[in-house]
Structure prediction request, 462 residues.
Amino acid sequence: MLQNDKQISVKLLQQFYSFFSREENYSRQGHIWRVQTALDTIDLLDWLQQQNSEIKTYWCGRDHRFAMAGVGSVYDVSGDFSIAFPALFAQMQNVLHDSHPELRFYGGIRFDSSQPPSAEWQQFSTFRFIIPKFEIFHDGVQSWFACNFTVPSKENSQRFLKELQSETGNLKFNRDKSSQELPVCKSRRDFPDWQEWKNNVVRALDLFKDQGLQKIVLARKSVLQFSQSIDPVSLFKILSTTSPHSFQFCFQRNSRSAFLGITPERLYRRDNSDIFSEAVAGTRLRGKDKTSDKILGAELLQSEKDLREHRWVSDMVKSSIEPFCDSVSILAKEQLFKLPNVQHLHTLFNGPLSNGVSDGEILARLHPTPAVGGFPRAESMRYIAEMEPFDRGWYAGPVGWVGNKASEFAVAIRSALVSGNSLSLFAGSGIVQGSNPKKEWEENENKILNFTKLFKTDDASC
Prediction:
């Protein structure tokens, strides 16, 4: 195994020279290629925090069998226009076709791609997927260091090799634990505030009577202001320890701007011709002890309101993937899914995909689910755009990765946007008949607790 910066650089450069010594590889000019080498186990977030790159990417699956930390970007697919999902994913598959099997795009999509990004979301665009330049990843068995690059012409190969040598040499592989104290929270503002939130919930309840709306997910943005700029990876390192049974993601566009979170909710996973999806809806707090936790869980399992909300989501997920499958199986139905601060109702689905079904077709039917939008979909999306006084951006949108033979997307809830000295926290509640504005406000408070409990404060509003 490789032990230090110099050994890693030398080993990687040997592979570069071997690649460029083979004449046939120049026929791949313009293609994305990859070289990688085995590595001693290393803490990915410690490594990521040490790097000087503006662009940093982190992804960890909910089962923690796969995790990746990347710096830089060798290929970027992005745009500020409404998306045709099949065309977007076809573009990525054209790049991945006939490339290294472990090459992947990482990124996300706005919750509502029909709305233009606000100023604070400009760095992320309507959609953005990148292939990192350098990666360290764990595959469940082994750690690897990889470099992804565009194959140059033979005439430019020597200059290209020198640039790679320089970039590789600037990477740091210090095994010492990095640390950085989080800044102090100075103030907090909520959008909408309590009174506006109450009015929105009351309006939604009226819409159920008058407009045929059955569910709408209303969200809130809580903006924390700090004494100094927040380092996204430092914040994420601490956050990642608070909810181990969740997808973990961090997309840093520059040192002052990042979208990050720890979400429990999978949108779907594709493994070759198999698809897995799920419904997560209906919420209760965790109990202070085993007895109270069991009581709260039993209450959730028997709640007519929460079961109704959950079944809208599960019925929609099942009906969305059924056209792509010969059959759909329910692997688990309306079970408790326990997280550190809250517990949810959880139903799992699986099915074999028909030949030729693309990720773009799947995602276009699944997103947004009633768990983050509402039901019916079109009406709830229209009222969300009218009622919420902020841009959701990537919050509640699909985030994940795309590979040649597999892909995985989570729903970007329990998430936050870093913008210099401010941190915008997002949380939403499913409003249905019987919803209570105060209880839904408190539910949102519990959903952002993973963040708010991390910070020292000198202001009661935080």
Notes: The radius of gyration is 23 Å. Residues 83 and 113 are 6 Å apart (CA to CA). The chain has two domains: 5-170, 186-452. The first strand starts at residue 32 and ends at 39.
